[in-house]
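Hello Y.,

Per our agreement to keep a running log of every chain we model this quarter, I'm adding this entry. I've kept the format consistent with earlier entries: sequence first, then predicted structure.
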Amino acid sequence: MSIDTTHAPATEPTPQAGRPATPCTTYPWCTATGDHDRHTSAREVLNGVADPVGGFITHFVESYLFDADGAGDVRGVLIGGDHLELTGDQMRERASELHAFANQVTALAAQLDASRRADTPAETEAHTWTLTVDGGTSITGYRPAWAKNDPSRDVTAERIGAVLSDLGMYRYYDGSAGVPVFHAADGDQPAGPLGLPMLRAVMNVHPYREAAQQQPTVDVEVLGDSDEWMENLTPEQLADVIATVRAQCDRLDQVHTDLIAARADWEANAR
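Predicted structure for the entry above:
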């Protein structure tokens, strides 16, 4: 099944003949034009695949804003099995639940992939690392398919302990696009915003370190070049971090709304 999101316009009243379809002056989000009392935003829709028999597309989740009679009683609508009319806080709470559900679906997908990816003996043998010690002996271990580095090397007998302690396998993930972070002047670098990525992640495993690092964990860099890391996260701990970040993004959505309103108020009253 393929899933896509649709930004669907709301149903608009037909303008009176000879009059232009003027935008709504009550709410910036209202898509109705001309003379109208019912205000409705565009509908945010999560669609499923077209039905193979009837050809229609099922709406998994649908959400929009409305004011039924222009009296200021704005509600948020969320349709997903039930038809819910919600406040802003309730919509954010539901959004957080949907984020958590999406995480669970992603985790199930990973488990599905792992269940269907049965390595043959030849493939398993190929995914190994080898330390060749002077004198002809060697130490070999498993190298998972996700590891982007091969720690194989030649090593002296005197260094084998230190090399095993440092031995690790890694996969690096991109962080966000650069965000403008202010920095003070430094040498030839003038003061000003510097684009730094957020939340870069590294999956790694160190077979010869403490027990917590002897199975795959994830390190997450909070902000590029900050040297602040969340280290050795288990799947459960990473899920907690993701939920916390998403909840904060929900709060920032409200901050964004408040900022737009504050600037409009300032423009109208302080100039």
